[in-house]
Amino acid sequence: MIATTRERGLEAAVELLGTEGVRALSHARVDERAGLPPGSTSNWFRTRRALLGGVVDWVAERERGDFDPAVMPTISGTDDLIEGLCAMTELQAGPFAARTRARYALFLELADDPQLGEPLRQQRREFEHWTERIVDAAGIPDPMPATRVLMALCDGLLLHRLTVDPTLDTRLAIERAVRALAGS
Fold this sequence. Notes:
Layout: H1 5-20, H2 27-34, H3 40-44, H4 48-66, H5 78-93, H6 97-110, H7 114-137, H8 143-163, H9 171-182
Helix pairs in contact: 1-2, 1-4, 1-6, 4-7, 5-8, 5-9, 6-7, 7-8, 8-9
């Protein structure tokens, strides 16, 4: 599928956020990064705030598509849960690293913004509910707090991989946490 110029602009905005941070985000820089005619991004997003909102929506849409429960493997035990969490952290720190960094940058930038921060928090809650169902299916007792622990652990591991040690093997920490939460 050929990306529209708007999609190319949003992809470029995410790349800028993920590689250079929030301060690097401008309409002109997005146009330049995407190879678009000057003014293209500002035609879709008149203000920087509108551009940030567009990026928030784009990231959420892509993540919902990439981690669509309908196409994910079935999790039926702790070993499956360990494999799934390891695979997800590898994707987030590997092929989706720029998007992961962009998401973290957006969370930090928009934490106190009720309008633009809320879609990020809503996306997080949806992901948390989906993960809770998986944790429950894996047989982990008390799945809601276990989900929060696992998600916090994976966030910490991802942040470490993206900022300090790109070669960190996350498996041992994930395996220990899952087995401890499962009581095995």
